[in-house]
Amino acid sequence: MGSLVQSAASASDRRRSGARLWASPRSRGLAALALVVALAPLGLVNDYLYDIAILVGLNAIVCVGLNLLIGYAGQISLGHAGFFGLGAYGSALLCAHYGVPPLAALALATAAVSLLAFAVGRPILRLKGHYLAMATLGMGVIVSIVLANEDRVTGGPDGMPVPPLTVFGHALQGEQAWYWLVGACLIVVVWLALNLIDSPAGRALRALHGSEVAAEVVGIDSARRKLEVFVLSAVFAALAGGLTAFYSGFVTPAKASFLHSVELVTMVVFGGMASTFGAVVGAAVLTILPQALTVVKEYEMVVLGAVMMATMIFFPRGAVPTIEAWLRRRRP
Q1: What are phi and psi of 170, to 5 degrees?
Q2: Which helix (H) or strand (E) holds 51?
Q3: For residue range 175-224, what is the model confidence (pLDDT) as tens digits?
Q4: What pLDDT sits at residue 332?
Q5: Mean pLDDT, range 27-50, rounded to an integer
Q6: d(CA 91, CA 249)
Q7: 290 in a structural domain
Q8: N or C, fewer C-beta in 10 Å, the chain?
């Protein structure tokens, strides 16, 4: 009888813990994201809109990883487009030149980028502030120059074609199929990021952001934690880069340019640093907005700049955290 009572009590505890888990804001946010991904095709009436939605998802995958590095660990990076470009070119080269199956090429390219990020991250993450920003900028510039100049391998500034992505012998074709693949990858990446944030490693990252000295005093290995999140963010960027290459069927060195790195950082800051869903929103807004502003033609960049300035003035913490704080103040 006692064992039955204990079993019932433990089952009740599991149910309560599960209810608390799904009652958390992050779990509700993940469910909302999955719902948006599932229902968005109802409003995507043509391939052009599907193409924009796919680009939103690919940019969001990079931004979620970059937000872990910048927003949670407090380590700036202006060279993440380099990892994006290496993931794209690595996947393309392994398929086109060595006959590696596309999925295996994507996995191998992502693994190679993680090893490179580990090798590069160990020395440069000893730097802080603008010194770290300059080091990551230099890394990104080197990658961009190599991709542009090694024309016998990469095709140079003109780029190179990429074979189609095949899954179990079937080529993935059409915007709708790609939408579901990228949407599923985005949900998995966001889920991984949320689990990391809620783990002891995530709390260590937040402690590092507050004060590295204080974090080390309480026993956190700051060098190790910074390197781990740097490698993880590079893996997300390489994954998105490889998927982008297979989706577009062509890749150019512009994918690894400094301008692309700045765009990615801007998306993170716009949505809200230390906010996973803010990174997704920032990627969505700053991917869709330039497309919507094409109606104003030559004033497109002026309007885009004005919108971003206004956002930073009225939403200094980023769009999502500021709106969340406003809603909490309004709640009775």
Answers
A1: -115, 130
A2: helix 47-67
A3: 999 999 999 999 999 999 999 998 888 888 888 877 788 888 888 888 89
A4: 62
A5: 93
A6: 11
A7: no
A8: C
Rounded Cα–Cα distance for residues 305 and 23 (Å): 38
Chain centroid to CA 226: 17
pLDDT in tens, 262-307: 999 999 999 998 899 999 999 999 999 888 887 777 777 787 788 7
Q: Measured at the alpha carbon of residue 276, what is the angle toward residues 274 and 279, in degrees to the nearest 5?
A: 90
* Structural domain range at position 50: 26-258
Is residue 122 one of the residues assigned to a domain?
yes
pLDDT at residue number 319: 86
318: left (phi over 0), alpha (psi -120 to 50) or beta: left
**Average pLDDT in the 63-67 region?**
95
DSSP string, 262-304: HHHHHHHHHH-TT-HHHHHHHHHHHHHHHHHGGGGGGGHHHHH
Whether 149 contacts 258, CB under 8 Å: no
The strand pairing partners of 166, in sequence order, are 171
In this prediction, residue 307 carries a pLDDT of 79
Burial 194-214 (b: 16+ CB within 10 A, else e): bebbeeebbebbebbbeebee
